Amino acid sequence: YNGFGEEVHNREIQLTYGKSVIDVARRAWRNPHSLDMIVDSIPMTEWLGRKCGAALTHSRFYVPRLEKSCPGPIATAPLSFDARAVAPLPDRADDDIVITTIGHMNQNKCADAVIKAIAASPILSKRCRYRLVGMITRSERARLETLCHEVGYDRINFLGEVNDAVLTAEIDRADILSSLRKPVLEGASASAIEGMKSGRPLIVADTGFY
Fold first, then answer.
1. Which of 105, 103, 101, 106 is nearest to 128 (CA)?
2. pLDDT at residue 39 is higher than 90
């Protein structure tokens, strides 16, 4: 944002994590979309922690890193908000199962993994409809549409960005909410909390906040 170049980028990473990560820093500069590599080696949480007088996290996930870097007090408070007006999961009149992913549809959301899993099962591919509710770029939509074509799965809906009323209706419509992340970057997941408050079963990764 400030127009600093690779030299400053690499310097700040090295100051935070030491000389051993300089090769990772150089690769991250050239390929910023390699999130797994960045999260494993240089998440920069400690870089941010050094700049804070105190820190409040939404789960214990980030606390060890902040304890090493933030000079002031650190506390944890759950991310909380009112539940939506969504009824408990009812018995459905038909055999269709609706799986829904909510949020910004980037590759971190693992929609491709869900598509592959559904398509790999003759039973699931016939019964499961997959709905993506949230902003999605043209390139990401095209990537997922290409994947659907390759695996022979066409029961997918791209809703894009929606208003609050439509979001509530989509949670109500869902039988299952997928809240997968790879890698897990957030201290708490609003979509996972929405799912629990609505009484929907969740698909999650066994790591981080989850």
1. 101
2. no
